[in-house]
Design brief:
mainly alpha
Length: about 425
């Protein structure tokens, strides 16, 4: 039988998205070569993509072993994915915490502590949320059962009623150990809000009927539903006769849609700063309504502003309304990067030089290249640990860019020796 051409394999693999392509998953050399060809054609800096953007496919243990040896350390999100699969063997490969990975490796990997650090309590929380019995039992043998209470937020987020009932000692689950009743630890604001935000009606109903949600926490169900844009859940809560106390409720939970904003106004929630909160989360319809009705508007143009989306329509509306100006110090909280938004502000002469420092801290390679090419400053090279905040690709690129600048090399050496000194102390 005649072999299929490499061009045909490339055509077939082209239907896969870039995140789905993982070269080590292919045992066939032809498929690996085709996957490599596709990645090279799609990704501007392929080594940086592998190191920073590509997610470890935890379903294949051979790939996990290869990845740990050749690409980078695992992240917290990848460990959590293995936990969701109840994959005890892969967890043993990745580690029950990140202490075996050196401080220096953690720094140069480009991941901050929030997304990189983990321990067995994080694995336990994910396991309970998804009812993963092998890992729950493994965690139970490791330490203090009282740490189960830290898992309430995740299990409420996922709405696993069986596991909530098990934790509250209302239900025995085959294959799981008995634990102390944790009802005294259940009623935190964050747990109740998560239920409302995700709209887990079955769980909410059972908890209300069982008396596990205190009366003074009921308003947080509404806040969570508002934050999640769930007008249907708000209406359901009202139909069920769940009381709502608007005192001390913040409008920022209720700007996720125009219908929810109008509901909040009708229920006497103070609408101050509604426009700003709507801009932050990309709700131009709410912004327009506030502007046209003169409600919840800023008293003057923004001085500081944090954006959590990539919709230029909302930004342009704030520009048109003259609340976003050259003097506004804008920061971006966007996981996928922020080059689109930065270019948009640059084209309108609204990008401040301070943005480049924020770029350095987040280590967005493409943004840093673009900013320096546009003559924005690279940041303060004399900042302590500047080079430990960025990935090896950024360091290599900066050395190439500033190859004749002794200051770059001096600071690089200083940072590395300081870091090594910290590890030995």
């Amino acid at each position: 039988m005649e072999d299929l051409s490499s061009d045909l394999w490339t055509g077939v693999l082209s239907f896969l998205s870039t995140p789905e392509l993982c070269v080590p998953c292919f045992t066939s050399k032809s498929l690996r070569d085709a996957a490599c060809h596709l990645l090279d054609s799609r990704v501007r800096n392929i080594s940086h993509w592998w190191y920073r953007r590509k997610v470890l496919p935890v379903e294949d243990r051979q790939v996990v072993e290869w990845w740990l040896s050749n690409v980078r350390d695992p992240t917290k999100s990848e460990v959590r994915e293995a936990a969701r699969r109840d994959d005890l063997e892969t967890i043993n490969l990745l580690g029950w915490d990140n202490t075996r990975y050196s401080t220096h490796k953690r720094d140069v990997s480009g991941f901050n502590d929030d997304c990189h650090s983990w321990d067995w309590q994080d694995i336990l929380a994910e396991s309970i949320a998804y009812g993963c019995k092998r890992l729950i039992n493994a965690c139970h043998k490791r330490g203090d059962p009282m740490l189960y209470e830290l898992s309430f937020v995740r299990v409420c987020e996922e709405g696993n009623l069986e596991m909530i009932q098990w934790m509250l000692n209302n239900k025995e689950v085959e294959g799981l150990p008995s634990i102390n009743n944790l009802s005294a630890s259940f009623n935190s604001v964050n747990m109740v809000r998560k239920l409302g935000k995700r709209g887990h009606r079955e769980v909410i109903y059972w908890l209300l009927e069982s008396g596990f949600v205190h009366e003074w926490r009921l308003k947080h169900l509404y806040e969570g539903a508002g934050e999640g844009g769930r007008m249907d859940v708000i209406a359901w809560l009202e139909e069920e006769g769940v009381p709502f106390d608007s005192s001390c409720s913040d409008i920022h939970y209720f700007v996720t849609s125009l219908s929810i904003l109008k509901w909040a106004k009708k229920h006497n929630i103070v609408v101050e700063r509604a426009y700003e909160f709507a801009l932050r989360i990309d709700q131009p319809e709410v912004m327009k309504y506030c502007f046209e009705n003169g409600m919840g508007l800023p008293e003057h143009p923004f001085i500081e502003l944090s954006i959590k989306h990539e919709n230029t329509k909302a930004l342009q509306l704030a520009i048109d309304h003259q609340f976003l100006t050259k003097e506004t110090n804008i920061t971006f909280d966007i996981e996928s990067g922020n080059l689109k938004m930065i270019k948009y502000l640059h084209d309108r002469d609204l990008l401040q030089l301070e943005v480049s420092k924020y770029i350095n801290d987040l280590d967005y390679y493409d943004v840093l290249q673009w900013a320096i090419d546009k003559d924005y400053p690279a940041g303060k090279l004399d900042d302590r640990n500047f080079f430990l905040k960025v990935s090896p690709e950024v360091i290599e690129w900066m050395i190439e860019k500033y190859g004749e600048d002794e200051k770059v090399f001096d600071q690089l050496v200083l940072d590395v020796f300081d870091d090594l000194g910290d590890e030995t102390n």
